[in-house]
Amino acid sequence: MDADSVYANAAPYELEVSSPGLSRPLTVPRHWGRAVGRMVNITLTDGSKLHGRICEVGDDEVQLAVHHAPAKKGMKEKVDDPRPFALAEIRKAVVDVEFNRTDEHLDIIDVEDPEA
Q1: pTM more than 0.90
Q2: Distance CA 108, CA 87 (A)
């Protein structure tokens, strides 16, 4: 845009880039399937909130490795072994964007699945 004469002499502008649907809730199994390997924030039907990584998705449940905040600053967060949660007991789930994601998290993603 800076090279275009129409915009070159215009007032300063701010360019925002976003990803459509990034904050859209996960509501159906195919949404969950696309998010395998990603972190999510979940609210259960009982009101409790969880933060974890999606490990596997079935027709009516999701395997989630729940992450717990560190007890003290500088300590590592505790990560539970993956356990199942019925989709029916999940009130709301949204992908939590990770900017510091490492390759070790990619090991559980099925690269052969075009939906992932």
Answers
A1: no
A2: 20
